[in-house]
Amino acid sequence: MVNINELVKSLNFLYDYGEIKNNIDLQYLIDQNFIRLIEDRMVITKKWIKFSGKVNREDFISSLLCFYPPLLHKLLQKVYAEACIIGRRGDSKALYEFIDSIPEFVETILKIKDETIDETGEVKGFYQAIFNGYPQYPSILNKLKTMQLVENIEDVDSDYMGKNPNEIWTKGRKVTSSITLAKLDKNKYTFTPYEYRDFSVEEPVREVLSYPWKTFLTLLTMVALEYQTAGFEGLAIRPTDHNNYYAVQALDLYIFNTKGREVRVGMLNDFVYEFCLENDIYLFPDKAPEVDKVIFDMMDEQKIDFKDGEYVLNEKFKDLIYSKDIIIKNRSRKFKNILKDYIEKLRNTL
Fold first, then answer.
1. Residue 185 and residue 260 in one domain
2. Domain that holds residue 258
3. Of 65, 61, 55, residue with least CA distance to 127
4. Domain count of the chain?
5. pLDDT of 187-218, one tens digit each?
6. CB 161 within 8 A of CB 172
7. Residues 36, 42: contact at Cβ < 8 Å?
């Protein structure tokens, strides 16, 4: 018998961190391709990720609970029985709504409609977790509608997490889009905050490498600096409110095209999302990370400054990276080149 509370806890953990130790209660989600078992770890799939971008957290978790086969079959029997009552009383509008609402479940309903499915204590436990009580026809129908937003998507292979940006920011990597997660143990396949101990590095560097989006922004501002070192502007991160540039706000990204003209390409958050999409880096939940807020956190930590109208690497932190560090400076070049290639593509099309 499934422990509902523990199941909900595991789903919430997966929503945040993307992988978990093998758990037999989650087997039904492996069977339905929401999770993959890789060695001893359960890892979320592209199917999971795509669905996570379409609904809020509460609807996402409750929908995954509803995919538990004994529960799903009982819910489908309930709505079918209600639909039969609707049909007998001649409410054509309500009957049409039923038929139109759950096309993906019609085949299953036809298979199980006459089966005897007991309303076990386990099933009733799911009722409380999902519906806060005994489910009524409208609430079941709404939940089934939400579940049909799921798309069947083939997953990609997940490389083992490496020890430096070149080995971590790779094609197929699943990266948290959250900027508020606590640091836990290092995952094997998904990139979430952890205490960086892979190599001995200076403490400011360790802090950056411990968080996905601090790493990303450090590398992005390094790319901007390296464009300038080469003798021309490439990109700039600028405030939307130029009179209050130290206040947390949405930030703009500008690209300088090949003619040297500065072009606003959009919000920094959207740029990061589109970059990840283009380079097969899968964000979970599937939404743009709020990296603009991370910029201001890094300003407080004296890793980023505001200078000449844009956000740039802090001078002291920059000197540390380029004079003493070997991980960010030397073992991120492959990923920085991927960033540069993407920016060059934009520069050539603007």
1. yes
2. 165-349
3. 65
4. 2
5. 999 999 999 999 999 999 999 999 999 999 99
6. no
7. yes
Do you know the residue count of the chain? 350
Single-letter residue type at 29 = L
Euclidean distance between CA atoms 48 and 167, whole angstroms: 24
Q: Band of the pLDDT at 93, cuts 50, 70, 90?
A: confident
Reading the block at residue 8, the tokens are 């909900």
> Are 279 and 305 in a shared domain?
yes
The pLDDT, as a whole number, for residue 157 is 86
Higher pLDDT, 80 or 221: 221
> Are the beta carbons of 304 and 297 closer than 8 angstroms?
no
Closest listed residue to residue 233, CA positions, set 251, 253, 218, 214: 253
Is residue 140 exposed (0-12), middle (13-18) or buried (19+ Cβ within 10 Å)?
buried
Q: CA–CA separation, 174 vs 329, rounded Å?
A: 23
pLDDT at position 48, please?
Answer: 98
Please report which confidence band the pLDDT of residue 259 belongs to, taking 50, 70 and 90 as the band edges.
Answer: confident
263-275 confidence digits (pLDDT tens):
999 999 999 999 9
- Measured from the Cβ of residue 1, the count of other Cβ atoms closer than 10 Å reads 8
Q: How far is CA 301 from CA 145, 194, 208, 222, 324, in A?
A: 46, 18, 10, 17, 19
Instruction: For strands 262-267 and 251-256, give the pairing.
Output: antiparallel
